[in-house]
Amino acid sequence: QVQLVESGGGLVQAGGSLRLSCAPSKSIFSINTMGWYRQGPGKQRELVASITRGGSTNYADSVKGRFTIARDIAKNAVHLQMNSLKPEDTAVYYCAADTGAGPYWGQGTQVTVSS
User: What is the separation, in whole angstroms, between the first and last Cα of the chain?
Assistant: First the structure.
């Protein structure tokens, strides 16, 4: 079992930046894939970005070129750097970890982008 602790959400104006962090309760290198999902008002949860144990990344088309997912080995965490934020990025963002026995989910963190 893996616990995920998220941080970094908040309110930002359009064009601004935020960084989300996710700290798992076990080594990030023991987790097959870690990712960030989001669920906007009245929408289904969707994948935003993911990173595999080998370092391969994947992004939703809507965030390519604006968001970056990366591992922080020193802090045993995964960050999602979000730049050039748009009002349509407003959502609850969830960290997820796939261990093969998962997936496991964080509690979610609210990101609100004002126009």
Answer: 40
